[in-house]
Design brief:
This protein folds into three domains: 144 residues, no CATH class; 55 residues, PGBD-like superfamily/PGBD (Muramoyl-pentapeptide Carboxypeptidase, domain 1); 108 residues, L,D-transpeptidase catalytic domain-like, CATH 2.40.440. The chain contains seven helices and 17 strands. The chain has a nine-stranded mixed β-sheet with strand order 12-17-9-10-11-16-15-14-13. A three-stranded antiparallel β-sheet has the order 3-2-4. The protein has a three-stranded mixed β-sheet with strand order 5-6-7, with helices on one face.
Length: 347
């Protein structure tokens, strides 16, 4: 598909738009099936991705044109695309997406907004695997002169790495959308909660486990969908992945949270299917003379509980160590009888 990628205006003015983004090898077809994708809005003029589930490319474009939800607007997200903008048609040919929009898309004379709205469209569509670029049409015609400084008559190739990285707040929102941190962690400020969420994400994706937001983490976040459980079962349950060192809270086969954990060193945590059979708000470990707050026992003397430290590798005597902010959430979630599957999948 051919496309246009917007760049934000800088001191030298608006640069060329019409940017085709080479995301993958040319032999790979466009993945236009129903998927969880990212649409791009603005947070204080900074491009910001949020998740949407869309059955195909046209539905993804409609999700973008619909704008942020009420909750997202309350969090500060905005769209440069005028309300009421609709699509006349979407065509995919040779992995170039051609989007035909009504004239409202090109309304106004604010160059900054015109730049931003095309950038939103291109960033959204380039996230579909297989898309090489985007072409914009207005009422069936090429919008020559409507977007100052942009020539949308032909695609221009630009590497993905040159796209502007999302802000820290946008990255936090991505982590929350994917289930790696609570929405309350979306603050735009650095801190331990963000580092821990990044660490959990790195574990899940098999990246180096350092909790540092670098280019590799950012790139992976933009192309990642919400984790899926290894087993299928309705209801509320927990999966503990020993290889990845994460715990998943799952409701009706949807992962609602992913937690950074540390399990038993030397294989001390047994794998298998268990259930929570005892809960103690403040549990005392007799063998190790230690308090274990927010303890949910699921096999023998092994529980999920708060403890410090929680390294990125197995370090306990068998229990599942959790961070102080996460353990109460697991304690409330995993009630008596909640299934707990301890797995080696995803090592």
């Amino acid at each position: 598909m051919a496309g246009t990628t917007g760049r934000e205006p800088n001191g030298a003015g608006v640069r060329t738009l019409g940017v085709a983004l080479a995301l993958i090898a040319l032999a790979v077809p466009v993945d236009a099936a129903a998927k969880t994708r990212h649409v791009w809005f603005l947070d204080a003029a900074q491009p910001t991705p949020v998740q949407r589930t869309a059955p195909g490319v046209p539905a993804l474009v409609r999700s973008l044109l619909a704008g942020p939800t009420k909750r997202e607007r309350a969090e500060g997200l905005r769209s440069a695309i005028p309300i009421g903008t609709t699509i006349r048609g979407v065509r995919i040919e040779r992995r170039v997406v051609t989007v035909d929009l009504v004239a409202r898309f090109a309304s106004g004379r604010d160059e900054r907004l015109l730049t931003a709205r095309v950038g939103q469209l291109v960033r959204t569509l380039r996230g579909v695997p297989g898309v090489l670029g985007v072409r914009v049409r207005i009422e069936g015609g090429v919008p020559v002169g409507l977007f100052p400084g942009y020539d949308l008559r032909r695609p221009v190739v630009e590497p993905l790495a040159e796209a502007r990285a999302p802000s820290l707040r946008a990255t936090q929102r991505l982590l929350a959308d994917l289930g790696f941190m609570a929405p309350t962690g979306v603050t735009g400020r650095e801190g331990d909660e963000t580092s821990t969420a990044i660490l959990a994400f790195e574990k899940w994706k098999g990246l180096p486990r350092d909790g540092v937001l670098d280019k590799d983490v950012t790139s992976a976040l933009l192309l990642t969908t919400r984790p899926s459980p290894s087993r299928s079962r309705l209801g509320r349950r927990v999966e503990i992945h020993l290889g990845r060192q994460v715990a998943l809270q799952i409701v009706d086969d949807r992962v609602v949270r992913v937690f950074h954990i540390s399990s038993g060193a030397g294989g001390a945590t047994p794998s298998g299917s268990f259930r929570v059979y005892r809960k103690e708000r403040m549990s005392w470990s007799v063998p190790f003379s230690s308090w274990m707050p927010w303890a949910s026992y699921f096999v023998g003397g092994i529980a999920m509980h708060e403890y410090w430290p929680v390294p990125s590798y197995p370090a306990s005597h068998g229990c599942i160590r959790m961070m102080a902010r996460d353990a109460p959430l697991m304690y409330t979630f995993a009630t008596h009888g909640t299934p707990v599957d301890v797995l080696w999948e995803g090592a």
